[in-house]
Protein 1
Amino acid sequence: MTEKPSEEFLVMPIPLELPFQWAAGPYLGRFFRELRDNARLLANKCPQCGRLLFPPRQVCAQCHVKVGEDWVELSDKGVVEDFTVVVEPMSDPSTGERRTLPYPTATIRLEEGVSLIHYLEETDSAKIREGLKVQAVFKPREKRKGEMRDILYFRIVEGP
Amino acid sequence: MRQEPFVVPGKLVVPYRYFVGRLASKALIALRDDKKVMGVRCPTCNLTYMPPRSTCGRCFSKLEELVEVGDKGTVLTYTVVYHKEPVHPMEPPFVYGLIKLDGADTALPHFIGEVEPEKVSIGMKVQAVFKDKREGNILDIKYFKPQ
Amino acid sequence: MAERVAIVGVGQTYHRSRRPDVNQVELMNEAVRAALDDAQLTLRDIDAVVMGNMELFEGNYLVDMWASDGIGSYLKPGMKITTGGTTGATVSCAAFNHAASGLFDVVLAVAFEKQDEGDTTAGLNSVSDPLWRRWIATGAMGAFARVGRDYIRRTGCKEEHAAMLRVKADKGACRNPYAHLKLNLTIEDVMNSRMLMWPMRLLHMCPTSVGAAALVVASEKRAKQITKKPVWVKDWVTVHEESATTWSMVRPGETSLEKASRLIYQRNGITKPAEEIDVAEIYEPSIWGELAWYEQYHFCEPGEGWRWAEKGVTDMEGEFPVNPSGGVVATNPIGATAMIRIVEAALQVRGDAGEHQVSRPVRTAFTTAWGGSNWTVATLLTKSL
């Protein structure tokens, strides 16, 4: 038989695919249910410092106190605080697939002062600026599952 | 108002690839190309490890001496799998065994085949059955069958 | 703490993009042997072994089950630790704690990453919480692009300043035999490298490296027996932030970077860090992190970092050298990276850094590590007790 190269290093491809069931808990659970059923965004309020917790949660990490049921409905409007355009291919660990490129993501400050990161509808980076006013576009009810992607993206409604 | 817990189904998918290293590559290439089952000998402890490894855990010596441990061995222990699971490599019932190859001091986990599960026993002498199309991994041994 | 502790041996591998010739355990073994050789000890002298990596980069979630032969933990006490980018520092701190507790005299710490075996960004995206943020996570690139944008907006810094620090890092790396990227860069090379996410260019970001590092740590009594040049671990601290969903890292105010360094200075009577500390090895997965974080570490005034870049304050020959090793932008075997900061700082304190030994005499060194946007580990190393 033929002589193999003396320095052949073997490599074993072993993909990992594991199923999970993530419990949202009562606070995030209520948030996702509202998002799915009524296309509404909720925050809850810390009884000590009074700030809004978004996403809603059980404990204010700064005050170390339990946050109760002081729920606040948030506006679906905000401003682009910060944005970037993703041009580098990367895997989505939820699917193992490469994300479709390019896509803009932005930090959006809602009218109540809390922020989230989401997609923008506008993909031309020349047309995106900090300070643009944007509004959430929700998927239709039958497509909403109770996840952040129930918001399709944020649409520019007005320049700064 | 009490509501059902909100549970989100999801998964984690990441591709991995593992380099087996210089020493184990040599051993698995011998298995792939020549159907030779190799272990590695620690001269200080006078022990032969199968699967091979490049450091002796007992004395921390570097191990480089690959030795053929042969394709025959003894069943140290075994279990029979009767239930069906998507992760299982074959249809139940099938047998997992720990096999000490004649030239090795350690046990290799592998399948035991060509035998009724009820007839497998501790101390049974077994022999490796090789795949025809071998790729350089431990599954180039299809299973062990009774000698 | 009960016992004072010192670093008595350091080791690391040559860091590369790919190491098909070794498996994970063999990679760690190289660093362990190097550290034992440096300490002139054998495994018989080691009382406990602490190890760590970022397991989701290898998809091997209990690598200590596999590694006991190669790291020498067979029949010895110890533990495995994973804390993201800080892993190597947390593993080191665990070794310091083991020795400081008085329960163990000599402790081995080893950390590694074999990034040629997984998909680092997919792995990193999977550390984001699955309910709120994973779907939009963009790994470390997105996080540091934000740091850069915020810094530019806040301070008037220009892209050239990031390039200056990147060239400084490369000069260090070119003199460091173990460094991964040695590119002989010019400012133009950095400014012309591929844009990833504005303002983040390819050369602003760390590489994906394969490598391992190890430390031998000893109690005061044993340290003095083992070596004439112990590096005393004067202090170490970890500080956490609020959950990453709040994006506090780019906001003004109290961050874990600021708090961890302030605690170390306060507890050790340091009032002017850049004067009283002789060299710093900081954790900067992107050069934007180095530029924006000088002020977080209280090295300089807010917004002054880019002026420091212009003046070369933090060059190897500068008044306050930072990352003479080339830093994380040159070498990033993630789980080991934060330990390499401590290894390199210890070499500087000993005067054993060779070609990349800084001009300023080193009595005190400061290191940091940063992980997951939520926490910072800082250590202070000294030449004398």
Protein 2
Amino acid sequence: MNTTRIAIASALAAALALPATVQAQGNMEKCYGVAKAGKNDCQTAKSSCAGTSKTDHQNDAWISVPKGTCDKIVGGKLTAG
Amino acid sequence: MLALRDLQAALAGIVRGEDQPRLEAAVIGDAITAAARLRIYRHHIEQSLTTALAATFSTVQAIVGEDFFRAMARRYVAGDLPCQPVLAEYGAGFPAFIAGYEPATSLPYLADVARLDWALNFAFHSPAANHLTPADLSSLPAERVAELPLALAPGTAVLRSSYPIDRIWRVSQPGAADETVDLGVGGVSLLVLRREDDAAFVGLSEAEEAFLSAVERGETLEGAAEVGFQTGGAFDLSTTFARLLALKAIAATQHHFVERVEKAL
């Protein structure tokens, strides 16, 4: 039996010894939750109205500057232009 | 009069921001001109899709702010209209788009954060499925288990970034503590998982990432274990395997298939 097979046999023995209720250890980041579940709904009245503008957006990709949590990220510098 | 197919193609062109004089000619205008009526369609679709992207890529929006996000999302929408009706499944190409979006080049980690947002979204919307449990394993001899092709459970994904996207994600959540992230701490490997009514991620060591990437490719337990041992770092197969079973990260289907085949023989 090679060393990988030996490691597998011992890993399986360890897994079988786990209590059924064992919880995942480690730092798990909980992320989403049910609050996002309904996002495939139709638009709300408010955003539907926002979408009915008859004038085009300015092409503001280049005049828009990131203004969020990026200023918390050191080295993620902002470019004004 | 345009054929329906041409009419639809022309309307898609309007949504992408093109001029469609034949479609304009086909639309009746009165107090509101035909062109203005068509712009209403464009803006409504643009608005709906950018809002869907903001919901899916909420961390990206938190990082760049709403104005920048909307400008970037509008540009993406114009080039990649949905091919299916589910808004939560729209945006698969957005991370790659961000990687090439010049106004965001000052934020080199942004595309990887988008990949994390997308993986979490995918995990959240994945169906509940059976995962490999210790009880499943007890029904087979160890040599058979070693030869089982493994697979990740539905919604599970391995993500590697050269940037600390886990920390970036954390400081960008609503109500996060006012702390900074130093990009100099380097990259990270993450395992994204489906949870009950939720999605989550955990950090992975280099060896664990190598092991799981092998599982993702459909390697057997033995093949994946060998990949883990070959990374050179400390790789404790027993701890890793127990952790992955507890996280419900490994799919059960292959095993059940083999079990059924063996029972049938």
